[in-house]
Each structure stands twice: as structure tokens, then as C-alpha cells.
Amino acid sequence: MRKRLLFLFMLSFLLVLVACSDTTSSDQETETNTDEEAATETDGTIKIGVLASLTGALESYGKQTQQGFELGLEYATDGTMEVAGNKIEVVFEDTETKPEVAVQKATKLLEDDDVDFLVGSSSSGDTLAVLPLAEEYEKIMVVEPAVADSITGEEFNPYIFRTARNSSQDAVAGAAAIAGPGVKIATFAPDYSFGWDGIEAFKDAAETLGAEIVVEEYADPEATDFTSHLQKIIEAQPDYLFVVWAGANSPWNQIADLKIQDKGIKISTGAPDIPALSTMEALIGMEGFTVYYHTLPDNEINDWLVEEHKKRFDGEVPDLFTPGGMTAAIAIVEALKQSEGDVDANKLIDLMEGMTFETPKGTMTFREEDHQALQTLYSIKLEEQDGVPYPVPVLIRELTPDETAPPIMND
């Protein structure tokens, strides 16, 4: 009898333990499911860090990029500033056009602000200094507007995607405008990566077309007196002077003062931003190329950009680098739509390689091999127009993405 009572007691005890275990397990499962549902329902925040020259020699470029990027996010998200249920937050940092500062600011964005993407920068030197951080921290970096070939060439890493055109794309457009068998060309550029890469790419394209480069001159990008360089070019007696330049201290006034065109040397260059165009009155009639002028593209996105820019910035039209900033923002939002908000860079790389998207300059595609955006450039002539206080780039023809596709240089 006592054994039977003991057996019943032990059986009851075990049943209680099992019941408690089931209840605890059920409670834990319910709690886990609740947490998962809460995580699914709670919107996250996607952070984008933008590096730009917001002060210094390239300040106007940085501010154009900033304005374009903000407008691009608004356009791409239909004004919600959200993508795939996640809010978008942007942090802008001024590189001061100093590579060491760019590295400091990028590190701050990655470590302190914990950004999911990097964008930038206005200077190729700044950008090249930051590229290794994108790979180290495994974050997608969209390069805009820096153009050095080496960014998607020997310094390339798989986390880099460039919406900006590169020097070789400029070079193909520039060479197509003037190069041919027997044509003698002098070149002039700033003495840093932007200038070196631009001239090297132009030489390759021009020589392929049969032209001869008779002299190359490089000047300190901070210089204000270019006389000695221009005199050497005059002495070489070329048919054309092809100029690659960026920044406020441009050589156009001195080129006019030295009456280079009166000496039988035709000037050719990429039509720059509007402030620089204002110094190029002596070059009216010049045929060259441009990355962008607001009247050249014919598409709905550019129409929206021009209209909204005028509304928000006292009637001012978007300038040379504004559409690039917009394009960088559109590219990021498009990638996030495809990833459904997943910011894992290694997943995004697979999605963004070969990705085609619409921009103020028409359709762009990230080339799979080097992540360079293939894009339209414009063959133009500078003309005088009533009511416009600077020479206006007038379209000769669009140079298609296939025509301006640069060589792959990251092998």
C-alpha cells in the first residue's frame, strides 16, 4: 500500500513538472514570437554619410552635390524620405578638399554615426584616400563627383560604385571633338590625380585617332598665374590646346589675355560649371563637350530637377554637379528597393552590379566589371544667347553610353 502511494505521488510530481515545462516553453515561444513581430513592425533608419568639399577651392562643387543629393532622395522616395519601410537619414561632412581630413571625417561617419553608405567626394584626392575604408568597414561607397580613372582602376575595390563619369569618358568625348590624323595638340591640366588621369586618358584617345600630343603642361591647382605654362604651349605651335581643369582659379582669363586663339591655336575643353563659363567669353564658338548643362537632357527626371531647383534656390538652375548628386541618391534608393531595405554590402554588390536606373542624364548602368556608371555625355558648342551673361553650351549631339564607355582598368 505504501509503495503504491509513493508511486502515485511520484507520478503526480512528474506530471506537474511536465506541465510547468510546457507552460514555460509556451511562454518563451510566445515572447520570442512577439519580439520578432515587433522587430518586423518597427521601422529602422538607414544612414548615409556624404563627404563633400563644403568649403575651400571646390566649395561650389560640394554644394551642388549636396543640393542634388537632397533633391534626389526626395524624388526617388516620392517625398517620403523612406525606402522599404526604413527612414533615411543623411549626415554631410566637409572634407575641406584635404585627403587627411576626408579620412578623419569618413572614419567619424563609419564609427560614430554608424552609416550604412558613404558618398563622395568632390576631389579625386579625397576620394582615393577614403576608398580603403569602404572595404575595411564593408560599406558601399558611391563615388560622386570625383573622376580619377584610378578610382575604378588600380585603386578599385568591390565596395566602390561610381555614378560620376571618369576621366576616360571625358577624354573620349574631348578627343572625338578635335583629334584626327596629323592634328597637333597641346594639353594643360592641374598637377594632381584629376589632371594626370584626365590627360593620360585624353592622350590615349587622341593618339588612337591619329593626333600628336606636342607638349603637356601641369600647373599647381592653387596657382593664380599660369603665364609660364601657357608660353611653353604657344612656343610648341599646336593646332589645339586641350584643357582639363576644375576649381575656381581657372586659366581662362589668362588664355584670353595672351590671345592664344589669335595665334592660330584653337581652344577645346569640357564646358565647366556656370561660374567658370562666366569667365569664358573669349571662347565663344569653341567646340568641346560637357558633362551636363540643364537644357541638354530631354527627360522627365531632368525636367523635375530643373523645376524644383528653381523653386528652392531663388530661381537658380541646377549646375554641373547637381545632377550627379541626384543620381547618387537615386542609385542608393533603387538598390535598397531591390534589396527590400537590406543594407548588407555584400548582398548589395550582387544587386548593383549591372543595375540599370534612370537619372537626370537618362539611363545609366553600373558596369559589372568595375562598377563604373556608363552614361551620356554631350558634344557642344559655346554660343552667345540674349539675356544669358555667359557662353551657353548648345547641343551638337548626345554621346551615348556605348560611345563614351571607358576601358576597364582594374584587371
From TrEMBL:
One Pfam family hit: Peripla_BP_6
Signal peptide: 1-21
UniProt KW keywords: Signal
Domain Leucine-binding protein: 45-383
The organism's place on the tree of life at top rank: Bacteria
Record-linked SUPFAM superfamilies: Periplasmic binding protein-like I
Family: Belongs to the leucine-binding protein family.
Official protein name in the record: Amino acid/amide ABC transporter substrate-binding protein (HAAT family)
Provenance organism: Pseudogracilibacillus auburnensis
Source lineage: Bacteria, Bacillati, Bacillota, Bacilli, Bacillales
